[in-house]
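FAQ: What does the model actually see?

It sees only this:
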Amino acid sequence: MSLIRRLCLIYAIILLGAAAINYIPGLTDDQGLAFGIFALDPFDDALHLVSAIWAFLAGLISNRSARTFLILFGAAYLGDGVFGIFTGWGYLDFGIFTNENLGMDWSYQRIAANLPHIILGFVALTAGLIMGRRP
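And it is asked to produce this:
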């Protein structure tokens, strides 16, 4: 199995973990914040689960499907994280459409809440673009 396909399988595991955060005792505080930083609702859980299934299938199918997943997923999640910093809400959960713009904020809370999407998105997008050029 190629490295790009294995990376998709790793993403599937990470995303399954993200979907499970709300259901593992001790990972959320009294206010429902995961790690005391951000809240995940059932819609977020579903988004992570669907993304995990997509990553898993892409990793099993072919190098081309793995590359397509990494590029599309990476662009979507990276953009969502950047939007989160600038507006306080992401677009993948429709937050920018249903909530008032909170403005740009460089606080620890805002950065920490959006950093997972920024890192996952950047790594996936970069890997998809770079690994896709190799024969």
